[in-house]
TrEMBL record:
The chain crosses the membrane at residues 41-57, 69-92, 121-142, 149-169, 175-192, 212-230, 242-260. It comes from Allacma fusca. It comes from the Eukaryota. The keyword Transmembrane helix applies. InterPro entries: ELO_fam. Keywords: Fatty acid biosynthesis, Fatty acid metabolism, Lipid biosynthesis, Lipid metabolism, Membrane, Transferase, Transmembrane, Transmembrane helix. The keyword Zinc does not apply. This is Elongation of very long chain fatty acids protein. GO terms for cellular component: endoplasmic reticulum membrane. It is an enzyme of class 2 (transferase). One of its GO terms (molecular function) is fatty acid elongase activity. Pfam families: ELO.
Amino acid sequence: MELLEAEEVKLVRIVSEYVEAYDFEVYDIVGTILWFREHRIVMWTTIGLYLLGIYFGQKWMKNRPPFKLTFPLFFWNLGLALFSIICTLRGIPELLYLLSKPDGMYQAACVGPPHNFATSFWGLMIVLSKIVELGDTAFIILRKQKLIALHWFHHAATLLICWIGYEYYETGGRFMFINLFVHSFMYSYYAFKALGVKISKNVSQALTTLQIAQLAYGVYVASSILYFWAQGRPCRMHFETVSFSGSIIAIVLVLFIRFYKQSYTARDKIKMK
């Protein structure tokens, strides 16, 4: 894998037009990227252990009563909700700033600078958080709830996309912060639900709709990058990442639409009958 060119890692440390980086957000970006590139086995091992944990965890819980885990689940979701909010506030200003410029999609998806240490730092935190979020599945297994394919595939695939995207330090990684924006609402919803707070099913339906919209936009971003290439415009992205992540996002989008139909459309039909 080629090293990053110098101009691609020149970041703005202090006041920029969209965000100010704090001292703790300034880190060795090139060194961290190289570590990720040299240790991809960590990502594959994590995903492998995750899938094995699902299989053996369900077998272990088969003849055992479910755990309640009310307060651990609440604090788990609360922590992820707060993390998602912070990531959104620190990372999304750069994306919004670039999208607001002329030819905004090209600027945000394909151009390296302008870039900020704050955006880079929280982008790294997002990648690491995808390992932490695998713990969502542990709660489902221990509480003996139904584990659908959408759940575990989505978690494993997201970790894969984010890890490889950081290895290449893809400019399109800026769009990851949209995912954290959605998670801000999603994990807040789960936190209240863990405490037994009665929430209208319309809220969960709205959250699923928001997730579908996010995934559809992800497919649009990948398609836009392919279009820029077809026009012969330079784009600091790699075909492996764009094609791979675009395909996975499209698969997850189909699964979410299918889940939406099964959960809400079918339910509405039953009510009408």
